[in-house]
Amino acid sequence: MRIPVIAGNWKLFKTIGESITLVDELKPLVANNHGVEIIVAPVFTALSRVYDAIEGSNILLAAQDCYWEEEGAFTGEVAPRQLKDAGCSYVIIGHSERRQYFGETDLTVNRKTGAAIAAGLNVIVCVGELLAERELDQTFSVIETQIKGGLSGLTAEDLTHVVIAYEPVWAIGTGKTATDAQAQEVHIFIRQLVARLFNPSVADAVRILYGGSVKPDNVKGLMARPDIDGALVGGASLKAESFAAIAGFNV
Ligand code: 13P
Predict the structure, then answer these.
(1) Cα separation of 225 and 185, whole Å?
(2) Ligand 1: distance of its center to the CA of 18 in Å?
(3) Lowest CB count within 10 Å: 18, 119, 127, 163, which one?
(4) Ligand 1 proximity of 92 Cβ (cutoff 6 Å)
Protein backbone atom coordinates (compact mmCIF):
# COMPACT_ATOMS: atom_id res chain seq x y z
CA MET A 1 0.00 0.00 0.00
CA ARG A 2 1.36 3.41 -0.97
CA ILE A 3 0.65 6.13 1.60
CA PRO A 4 -0.73 9.15 -0.29
CA VAL A 5 1.17 12.44 -0.18
CA ILE A 6 -0.39 15.89 -0.35
CA ALA A 7 2.34 18.52 -0.66
CA GLY A 8 1.95 22.29 -0.80
CA ASN A 9 4.56 24.15 -2.84
CA TRP A 10 4.34 27.74 -1.65
CA LYS A 11 6.77 28.96 -4.34
CA LEU A 12 7.85 32.60 -3.84
CA PHE A 13 4.97 33.49 -1.53
CA LYS A 14 4.71 34.51 2.12
CA THR A 15 6.92 36.12 4.72
CA ILE A 16 8.01 34.24 7.82
CA GLY A 17 5.06 35.62 9.78
CA GLU A 18 2.57 34.75 7.05
CA SER A 19 4.03 31.26 6.78
CA ILE A 20 3.61 30.65 10.50
CA THR A 21 0.04 31.96 10.39
CA LEU A 22 -0.74 29.57 7.56
CA VAL A 23 0.57 26.47 9.33
CA ASP A 24 -1.07 27.54 12.60
CA GLU A 25 -4.39 27.66 10.73
CA LEU A 26 -3.66 24.41 8.94
CA LYS A 27 -2.67 22.30 11.94
CA PRO A 28 -6.11 21.91 13.55
CA LEU A 29 -7.79 21.44 10.15
CA VAL A 30 -5.63 18.43 9.27
CA ALA A 31 -4.95 17.03 12.75
CA ASN A 32 -7.32 14.13 12.17
CA ASN A 33 -6.24 13.31 8.63
CA HIS A 34 -4.80 9.85 8.97
CA GLY A 35 -3.22 7.73 6.29
CA VAL A 36 -1.88 10.68 4.33
CA GLU A 37 1.48 12.44 4.44
CA ILE A 38 1.01 16.21 4.51
CA ILE A 39 3.94 18.39 3.48
CA VAL A 40 4.46 22.15 3.18
CA ALA A 41 7.31 23.80 1.28
CA PRO A 42 7.88 27.45 2.30
CA VAL A 43 10.71 29.70 1.10
CA PHE A 44 14.17 29.06 2.60
CA THR A 45 14.02 31.95 5.05
CA ALA A 46 10.86 30.60 6.68
CA LEU A 47 11.90 26.94 6.97
CA SER A 48 13.30 26.83 10.45
CA ARG A 49 10.53 28.95 12.00
CA VAL A 50 7.84 26.91 10.25
CA TYR A 51 9.54 23.78 11.55
CA ASP A 52 9.19 25.08 15.11
CA ALA A 53 5.52 25.76 14.44
CA ILE A 54 4.74 22.28 13.07
CA GLU A 55 6.91 20.21 15.39
CA GLY A 56 4.80 17.47 16.95
CA SER A 57 2.03 17.86 14.35
CA ASN A 58 1.33 15.63 11.37
CA ILE A 59 2.74 18.20 8.91
CA LEU A 60 6.19 17.66 7.39
CA LEU A 61 8.57 20.27 6.03
CA ALA A 62 10.08 20.49 2.54
CA ALA A 63 12.43 22.92 0.85
CA GLN A 64 11.90 23.96 -2.78
CA ASP A 65 15.45 23.28 -4.01
CA CYS A 66 18.99 22.56 -2.82
CA TYR A 67 22.55 22.42 -4.09
CA TRP A 68 24.54 19.20 -4.45
CA GLU A 69 27.70 20.11 -2.54
CA GLU A 70 27.88 19.61 1.22
CA GLU A 71 29.64 22.93 1.80
CA GLY A 72 32.16 25.24 0.19
CA ALA A 73 32.55 28.47 -1.73
CA PHE A 74 29.15 28.42 -3.46
CA THR A 75 27.61 31.79 -2.69
CA GLY A 76 23.85 31.80 -2.50
CA GLU A 77 23.37 28.04 -2.36
CA VAL A 78 21.90 25.86 0.39
CA ALA A 79 23.18 22.34 1.07
CA PRO A 80 20.99 19.31 1.81
CA ARG A 81 22.42 18.90 5.30
CA GLN A 82 21.54 22.54 6.05
CA LEU A 83 17.96 21.76 5.04
CA LYS A 84 17.99 18.76 7.39
CA ASP A 85 19.32 21.07 10.07
CA ALA A 86 16.40 23.46 9.48
CA GLY A 87 13.92 20.61 10.01
CA CYS A 88 13.22 19.47 6.45
CA SER A 89 12.40 15.87 5.73
CA TYR A 90 11.78 16.53 2.03
CA VAL A 91 13.16 18.67 -0.76
CA ILE A 92 11.49 19.39 -4.10
CA ILE A 93 13.94 19.05 -7.01
CA GLY A 94 13.54 19.89 -10.68
CA HIS A 95 10.33 21.88 -10.55
CA SER A 96 9.42 23.11 -14.02
CA GLU A 97 9.84 26.72 -12.89
CA ARG A 98 13.46 25.95 -11.99
CA ARG A 99 13.91 24.24 -15.35
CA GLN A 100 12.31 27.17 -17.22
CA TYR A 101 13.80 30.15 -15.41
CA PHE A 102 16.92 28.95 -13.59
CA GLY A 103 18.66 26.60 -15.96
CA GLU A 104 17.84 23.36 -14.15
CA THR A 105 18.63 20.33 -16.29
CA ASP A 106 18.23 16.59 -15.87
CA LEU A 107 21.92 16.49 -14.94
CA THR A 108 21.58 19.03 -12.12
CA VAL A 109 18.36 17.34 -10.98
CA ASN A 110 20.32 14.09 -10.80
CA ARG A 111 23.20 15.57 -8.80
CA LYS A 112 20.87 17.35 -6.39
CA THR A 113 18.71 14.25 -5.92
CA GLY A 114 21.69 12.03 -5.14
CA ALA A 115 23.15 14.55 -2.70
CA ALA A 116 19.82 15.09 -0.94
CA ILE A 117 19.26 11.35 -0.46
CA ALA A 118 22.83 10.94 0.80
CA ALA A 119 22.11 13.66 3.38
CA GLY A 120 19.04 11.78 4.61
CA LEU A 121 16.33 13.77 2.84
CA ASN A 122 13.41 12.45 0.83
CA VAL A 123 13.17 14.00 -2.62
CA ILE A 124 10.16 15.01 -4.69
CA VAL A 125 11.55 14.83 -8.23
CA CYS A 126 9.42 16.83 -10.68
CA VAL A 127 8.89 16.04 -14.34
CA GLY A 128 6.45 17.31 -16.94
CA GLU A 129 6.04 18.23 -20.58
CA LEU A 130 5.41 21.63 -22.17
CA LEU A 131 2.20 22.25 -24.10
CA ALA A 132 4.13 22.28 -27.40
CA GLU A 133 5.63 18.88 -26.56
CA ARG A 134 2.20 17.41 -25.76
CA GLU A 135 0.82 18.78 -29.02
CA LEU A 136 3.68 17.11 -30.90
CA ASP A 137 2.91 13.79 -29.16
CA GLN A 138 6.23 13.93 -27.34
CA THR A 139 4.85 13.62 -23.80
CA PHE A 140 6.09 10.10 -23.14
CA SER A 141 9.53 10.64 -24.65
CA VAL A 142 10.03 13.89 -22.69
CA ILE A 143 8.99 12.21 -19.44
CA GLU A 144 11.21 9.22 -20.18
CA THR A 145 14.24 11.45 -20.75
CA GLN A 146 13.58 13.43 -17.57
CA ILE A 147 13.09 10.31 -15.42
CA LYS A 148 16.09 8.46 -16.86
CA GLY A 149 18.31 11.53 -16.47
CA GLY A 150 17.02 12.59 -13.07
CA LEU A 151 17.21 9.13 -11.49
CA SER A 152 20.38 7.98 -13.23
CA GLY A 153 22.79 6.05 -11.01
CA LEU A 154 20.38 5.77 -8.07
CA THR A 155 19.92 2.40 -6.41
CA ALA A 156 16.69 0.59 -5.58
CA GLU A 157 17.31 1.56 -1.94
CA ASP A 158 17.69 5.23 -2.96
CA LEU A 159 14.29 5.02 -4.65
CA THR A 160 12.63 4.38 -1.29
CA HIS A 161 13.45 8.05 -0.60
CA VAL A 162 12.07 9.35 -3.90
CA VAL A 163 8.60 10.61 -4.71
CA ILE A 164 7.96 11.51 -8.34
CA ALA A 165 5.72 14.46 -9.22
CA TYR A 166 4.20 14.62 -12.69
CA GLU A 167 3.36 18.24 -13.43
CA PRO A 168 2.39 19.01 -17.02
CA VAL A 169 3.69 22.55 -17.50
CA TRP A 170 0.53 23.64 -19.33
CA ALA A 171 -1.53 22.79 -16.24
CA ILE A 172 0.54 24.77 -13.72
CA GLY A 173 -1.13 27.94 -12.51
CA THR A 174 -3.43 27.96 -15.53
CA GLY A 175 -6.57 26.52 -13.97
CA LYS A 176 -6.34 23.87 -16.69
CA THR A 177 -5.99 20.54 -14.88
CA ALA A 178 -5.05 17.46 -16.86
CA THR A 179 -8.08 15.19 -16.98
CA ASP A 180 -7.97 12.26 -14.59
CA ALA A 181 -7.41 10.00 -17.59
CA GLN A 182 -4.59 12.14 -19.03
CA ALA A 183 -2.81 12.12 -15.68
CA GLN A 184 -3.35 8.40 -15.07
CA GLU A 185 -1.93 7.50 -18.48
CA VAL A 186 1.32 9.33 -17.73
CA HIS A 187 1.47 7.97 -14.17
CA ILE A 188 1.23 4.35 -15.31
CA PHE A 189 3.83 5.09 -17.96
CA ILE A 190 6.18 6.42 -15.25
CA ARG A 191 5.53 3.41 -13.01
CA GLN A 192 6.29 0.98 -15.84
CA LEU A 193 9.44 2.93 -16.67
CA VAL A 194 10.58 2.74 -13.02
CA ALA A 195 9.94 -1.02 -13.14
CA ARG A 196 12.23 -1.30 -16.17
CA LEU A 197 14.93 0.99 -14.74
CA PHE A 198 14.89 -0.53 -11.23
CA ASN A 199 12.54 -3.42 -10.52
CA PRO A 200 8.81 -4.10 -10.19
CA SER A 201 8.71 -3.87 -6.41
CA VAL A 202 10.39 -0.43 -6.47
CA ALA A 203 7.84 0.65 -9.08
CA ASP A 204 5.00 -0.70 -7.00
CA ALA A 205 6.14 1.23 -3.93
CA VAL A 206 7.10 4.59 -5.47
CA ARG A 207 4.58 7.39 -4.91
CA ILE A 208 3.73 9.38 -8.04
CA LEU A 209 2.02 12.72 -7.41
CA TYR A 210 0.08 14.82 -9.88
CA GLY A 211 0.53 18.60 -9.94
CA GLY A 212 -1.11 21.35 -11.95
CA SER A 213 -4.18 23.28 -10.82
CA VAL A 214 -5.18 20.75 -8.17
CA LYS A 215 -8.14 22.14 -6.24
CA PRO A 216 -10.58 20.81 -3.62
CA ASP A 217 -13.12 20.04 -6.34
CA ASN A 218 -10.88 17.99 -8.63
CA VAL A 219 -8.67 16.14 -6.13
CA LYS A 220 -11.07 13.27 -5.50
CA GLY A 221 -11.32 12.34 -9.17
CA LEU A 222 -7.55 12.40 -9.55
CA MET A 223 -6.97 10.38 -6.38
CA ALA A 224 -9.47 7.76 -7.50
CA ARG A 225 -7.09 6.75 -10.30
CA PRO A 226 -4.95 3.73 -9.41
CA ASP A 227 -1.54 5.24 -10.15
CA ILE A 228 -2.11 8.73 -8.74
CA ASP A 229 -0.74 8.67 -5.20
CA GLY A 230 -1.09 12.29 -4.23
CA ALA A 231 -0.83 15.88 -5.30
CA LEU A 232 1.74 18.65 -5.48
CA VAL A 233 -0.34 21.77 -4.98
CA GLY A 234 0.63 25.36 -5.79
CA GLY A 235 -2.02 28.09 -5.60
CA ALA A 236 -4.53 26.14 -3.53
CA SER A 237 -1.90 25.40 -0.87
CA LEU A 238 -1.60 29.09 0.05
CA LYS A 239 -4.89 29.07 1.99
CA ALA A 240 -5.43 26.75 4.95
CA GLU A 241 -9.05 25.90 4.04
CA SER A 242 -8.38 24.87 0.45
CA PHE A 243 -5.20 22.95 1.28
CA ALA A 244 -6.92 21.19 4.16
CA ALA A 245 -9.81 20.29 1.87
CA ILE A 246 -7.34 18.75 -0.59
CA ALA A 247 -5.48 16.92 2.19
CA GLY A 248 -8.88 15.62 3.34
CA PHE A 249 -9.68 14.03 -0.03
CA ASN A 250 -10.19 10.70 1.73
CA VAL A 251 -12.47 11.80 4.57
P1 13P B 1 -0.73 25.22 -9.25
O2 13P B 1 -1.41 24.26 -8.29
O3 13P B 1 -0.80 26.64 -8.82
O4 13P B 1 -1.15 24.97 -10.66
O5 13P B 1 0.85 24.87 -9.18
C6 13P B 1 1.25 23.55 -9.34
C7 13P B 1 2.68 23.45 -9.01
O8 13P B 1 3.54 23.92 -9.73
C9 13P B 1 3.05 22.76 -7.75
O10 13P B 1 4.42 22.54 -7.70
Answers:
(1) 10
(2) 19
(3) 18
(4) no
SS (H, E, C) 60-85: EEEECCCCCCCCCCCCCCCCHHHHHH
- The H helix count followed by the E strand count for the chain is 12, 8
Give residue 125 CA to ligand 1 midpoint distance, Å: 14
pLDDT tens per residue across span 76-135: 999 999 999 999 999 999 999 999 999 999 999 999 999 999 999 999 999 999 999 999
Say yes or no: CB of residue 190 within 6 Å of ligand 1. Answer: no
Amino acid, single-letter form, for residue 56: G
pTM score of the predicted model: 0.98
Instruction: Give tens-digit pLDDT for 218-237.
Output: 999 999 999 999 999 999 99
Taking the C-alpha atoms of residue 211 and residue 234, their distance in angstroms, rounded to an integer, is 8
Whether 161 is catalytic is: no
CA atoms within 13 A on the CB side of 226: 5
> 167: Cβ below 6 Å to ligand 1?
yes
